[in-house]
Amino acid sequence: MFYLNNNYLVKIGGIKMKKNASIIGFIGLLVLVVFVSGCTSSNNMTSNQTSNVSVQINSTTPWNGTLTYNGTDHKINGTSNSNYNLGTTTGTVTIYLKNDNGTGNSTVQLLQGDKIIQTQTTSENQQTVTISHNF
């Protein structure tokens, strides 16, 4: 049992402590309970991350280019259709593709899951395409 005596909280049995010290102790105990209960837990996935991002290239001719995502450039090339699974992506995805021999068509699609975000196709007059999208 406790009682107040001249700004001291006194426990029957002889231990004295200042009222302010008991308030600070109570606040410390409250912070500890909140911390242990998990109220301060965080999710590791940043709010601007996007998952299931992929690039689909459909081509009838040899091609080469650059695929940039998560801040890194990747040289890409092929002679027909290709798919690049980027997984979880943050920031800007940029795809630059050029037909090697100047003939035929290539279509580049940026997808999130089954949803097409952007599509571009080369043409007889325009043998390069560039897609850029910020997630």
Briefly, what is this?
The protein has one helix spanning 19-37; strands at 2-5, 8-11, 16-18, 50-59, 63-69, 72-78, 82-89, 92-99, 106-112, 115-121, 128-134. By secondary structure, it is mainly β. Residues 40-47 have low confidence and may be disordered.
Which key terms come to mind for this protein?
135 residues; mainly beta; 2 domains; four-stranded antiparallel beta sheet; 11 strands; 14% helix; rod-shaped
Task: Give your account of this protein's structure.
The structure is a single chain. With 135 residues, the chain is mostly beta strands. The protein has 2 domains: 2-37; 50-134. Helix content is 14%, strand content 53%. The chain has one helix at residues 19-37, and strands at residues 2-5, 8-11, 16-18, 50-59, 63-69, 72-78, 82-89, 92-99, 106-112, 115-121, 128-134. It has a 4-stranded antiparallel β-sheet, with no helix packed on it. Strands 6-5-8-11 form a 4-stranded antiparallel β-sheet, with no helix packed on it. A hairpin with a 2-residue loop joins strand 9 and strand 10. The longest helix has 19 residues, at 19-37. It is rod-shaped. It starts with a strand and ends with a strand.
